[in-house]
Design brief:
The chain is mainly α. It has ten helices and two strands; from the N terminus they run H-H-H-H-H-H-E-E-H-H-H-H.
């Protein structure tokens, strides 16, 4: 089941690449922007409505076809996983965190295994690749650890959760916006992902309810 969800992640990444490709093509040739959600709703005939050049129509139709195929495969995997496994009791509280739905919670459960193998919250966030990989001495940066240490699937899960959280959680959005203004969107999303990873650690370890007031105070 864990490997099946990893395959789902691969398909999601490929689908996102085709969505961004089509989004960029629309922006370059039409001077307008189309949302990712709107792109997912396009069908083959919409390519001819968007573009008048045959080569652009062919490119758009190819993107749309792949997006629809990958969406079907993703849904098929999700259905199969849900029919075979359920969240263990210590992981059900993950569903109360904004941005984490059933599939992300199952992904986290299968990648974590036993949360007690992480003595401290910092150990867990480091394993999730949510913190910078640096070695410091007297406050000065001396070296950098291997960035590939940790679990890349958990890293993706919390970035995905952060992207959903800023859409549905006012607390998460208020945390994200000043970070984005000061740095950039990628850094801000990673910072929010780290917040969510740390919160989920305590929820899994201590079986306590999610409290946005504590997380975003």
């Amino acid at each position: 089941m864990r490997d099946l969800l990893r395959r789902r992640l691969l398909f999601v990444k490929h689908r996102t690449a085709h969505i961004l490709s089509l989004q960029s093509m629309v922006s370059r040739n039409l001077g307008t922007r189309i949302s990712c959600r709107a792109i997912k709703r396009l069908d083959q005939g919409d390519a001819e409505i968007l573009f008048d050049h045959p080569h652009l129509v062919l490119a758009a139709r190819s993107n749309i076809a792949v997006i629809h195929f990958l969406t079907e495969r993703i849904k098929h995997i999700e259905k199969a996983v849900k029919s075979h496994i359920t969240l263990r009791e210590e992981f059900t509280s993950l569903l109360t965190i904004p941005g984490i739905g059933e599939i992300l919670a199952l992904t986290i459960m299968l990648e974590v295994g036993d949360i007690r193998r992480f003595p401290q919250v910092g150990d867990y966030s480091s394993y999730c690749r949510c913190v910078r990989s640096e070695r410091l001495s007297s406050g000065k940066r001396k070296d950098e650890n291997n960035r590939k240490n940790g679990n890349r699937y958990l890293s993706w899960a919390y970035v995905e959760a952060a992207n959903f959280a800023i859409r549905f959680s006012p607390h998460a959005k208020r945390f994200y916006q000043p970070k984005m203004a000061k740095t950039n969107g990628i850094v801000a999303i990673k910072a929010l992902g780290n917040k969510l990873a740390r919160a989920s650690y305590y929820l899994m370890r201590d079986q306590v309810p999610y409290d946005p007031g504590k997380l975003f105070r």
